[in-house]
Every structure is written in C-alpha cells, then in structure tokens.
Design goal:
The chain is mainly alpha-helical. The chain contains six helices and three strands; from the N terminus they run H-E-H-H-E-E-H-H-H. A three-stranded antiparallel beta sheet has the order 1-3-2. Helix 2 crosses helix 3.
C-alpha cells in the first residue's frame, strides 16, 4: 500500500495517539497543518477506500488498520526498486558514502548486520 504525504499526516496522528474521531483529526490537522474540515474528511475517505483506516459510527470513529512499519517497508521497497535497480546493497552504499558515521553508529550498524 502506498500512502501520499497528505494521507501520512492523518496516519501519523492515528499511529501516535491511537483511535480518534474524524472531528478530532480535523481539529488537530487544522491547528498543525492548516487544513479545513473538508480537506481532512476527503483525505480520510481515501484512506478508508484503500483499507488503511476503518471508520465506524457513531461519531466517525477512526482506527488505523495498517502498521507504520508496514508502510515504511513498502516505501523502502519501492525506493530500492525505482532508484537502486532492486539492490539493497546499492542503497546502503549510497547512504553510508554520503554521511559521516560516528564510531558508535558504525558499531550499531554492524551489530544489525551481524544479527541478520
């Protein structure tokens, strides 16, 4: 499942704060992003159609149906396929060649690799 930036704004709230009503989501997004109620409800409707959110009555109670980790994995897979010819090795090489890693970060990465 691929989520757009606008959809991620709603999902981030649901992941961080748990189930909320559509009204609560609209109020929070009005304050943080500047969306009006209609924008929130439109994006929420798309998330329901995709199966990412379950909305029930009364009160249009909203619940995330997909985990953040699942969305992250899908996004990384798509990125690797599009930009790195399906090679995770090329992705990692790109990441570590562009960044200055501390000794602690190198050790933590090595530990992750060793565990896999």
């Amino acid at each position: 499942m691929r989520l757009f930036d606008s959809e991620l704004k709603i999902m981030e709230l649901l992941w961080a704060q748990g189930d909320m009503t559509a009204k609560e989501l609209a109020e929070k997004l009005s304050l943080t992003v500047g969306w009006n109620k209609n924008t929130t409800y439109t994006v929420l409707k798309k998330l329901v159609e995709k199966g990412a959110v379950k909305r029930t009555n009364p009160g249009f109670h909203c619940e995330a149906l997909v985990a953040k980790d699942e969305i992250r994995k899908n996004a990384v897979t798509e990125l690797v396929e599009k930009l790195y010819d399906g090679s995770m090795q090329l992705l990692f090489a790109s990441l570590i060649s562009e960044e200055k890693l501390t000794e602690q970060e190198r050790e933590e990465l090595q530990n992750l690799i060793d565990k896999m």
